[in-house]
Design goal:
The protein has 361 residues and is α+β, with helices and mostly antiparallel strands. It contains twelve helices and eleven strands. The strands form four sheets. Strands 2-11-4-3 form a four-stranded mixed β-sheet. Helix 10 (275-297) runs antiparallel to helix 11. The protein is elongated.
């Protein structure tokens, strides 16, 4: 299924913005602790913002299928399924199969992320395209800062390094995102407002028409304010269930392969710290190439090369024995010998080890 496909993309017209004022609330805990790094991919942060929006906002119950989320946010259904799985560990709870609630937080700090950032096209450096996730999150932070500035309407001042630390982004990512947002006319920065001091703080403004559009939405929302709800219910159709099942299966096999391969790599790294093993290993690889070449060009040299190969294999085996390792320890020991934890048998059919593991658990 193609997500949000369109044949003739047309860039957004800021004079004719959509009537709906839908937005997400990206709680700042989703970005991770400053200086520690993000633990969630940006798509999962976006889905977390969707859940938090309906956990904190007065919209009674939100009913959305994966396909509806795909249409609204232009995120593939398999990515949506993986995002919910990652969020369940820390940020959201699920009382029922399709009912999600954002876990309680001490401080209500969030970035307002306009839904039009996800599903509209923008002219970025002459290319008509949708915004990237990194650009959306940078834009959402600037929107929030402009709306929260009580001293000067539609203005915010910060350095790119500050924003990178706030969002746990790479500094280069923030710089590129801001440049592209300026090209797309989503934000504006006058020449005299570009930072020239050591802190390199610049002042940014939202596109005036976009700013007024968001302010009108805020007024309408305050007029319709009702008792807040705490639950988002995702109604899953057959396609959604199949997508989530496929994502769970892929994650299961990835985890199994990761464990087996990491153990083998760790053992190999331990062995390579031994000088005798490392030298023999390098010689064996070199001799393998020389023997293959000699068999074609210089058959008389093969016997001598084979003798050297045997000697190095013996040295390698003795080094492994001294390190309490075996040859098998250097190769991944997969749980399933039939599919090697890939989920697919040599004949192309799906292996049943995933289903068998669920029955055991």
């Amino acid at each position: 299924m193609k997500a949000c496909a369109t044949l003739t993309p047309t860039p957004i017209d800021f004079n004719n913005l959509p009537e709906k004022h839908n937005y997400l609330r990206i709680h700042k805990t989703l970005y991770g602790k400053p200086g520690v790094g993000r633990v969630l991919p940006l798509s999962a942060i976006t889905i977390g913002g969707l859940v938090y929006a309906y956990s904190a906002r007065g919209d009674a119950t939100c009913v959305r299928t994966y396909s509806r989320i795909n249409k609204d946010l232009c995120i593939s259904q398999s990515t949506i399924a993986r995002a919910f799985s990652k969020l369940k560990a820390t940020f959201i709870t699920s009382d029922k199969q399709s009912s999600y609630t954002f876990n309680p937080v001490e401080r209500i700090e969030y970035n307002r992320s306009e839904e039009l950032f996800y599903n509209e096209y923008f002219n970025v450096r002459g290319v008509v395209r949708r915004l990237k996730q990194s650009e959306i999150h940078v834009a959402s932070s600037i929107v929030t800062k402009c709306l929260n500035n009580k001293k000067k309407a539609n203005a915010c001042t910060f350095s790119m390094r500050e924003l990178a630390e706030e969002l746990n982004f790479n500094l280069k990512t923030v710089k590129t995102a801001i440049k592209n947002l300026l090209y797309a006319c989503i934000i504006v920065r006058a020449a005299e407002e570009k930072g020239n001091c050591k802190a390199k703080k610049s002042t940014y403004h939202l596109n005036r028409k976009l700013y007024l559009h968001i302010k009108r939405g805020l007024r309408k929302a305050s007029e319709k304010a009702v008792q807040p709800s705490e639950t988002i219910i995702i109604h899953k159709n057959a396609d959604d269930v199949a997508t989530e099942a496929r994502a769970n299966r892929e994650r299961f096999y990835f985890a199994r392969r990761e464990i087996a391969e990491r153990r083998a790599e760790s053992n190999k790294a331990k062995a390579l710290k031994d000088a005798v093993f490392a030298t023999a290993e390098k010689e064996i690889k070199t001799l393998g190439r020389l023997i293959a070449f000699a068999e074609i060009r210089n058959p008389n040299d093969v016997a001598e090369l084979q003798k050297r190969m045997t000697n190095n294999l013996t040295l390698r085996a003795e080094a492994l024995k001294r390190l309490n390792l075996s040859e098998e320890d250097l190769t991944p020991k997969y749980h399933c010998t039939r599919c090697s934890d890939s989920g697919t048998l040599p004949n192309g059919r799906l292996c049943d080890c995933y289903e068998r593991s669920k029955q055991v658990n």
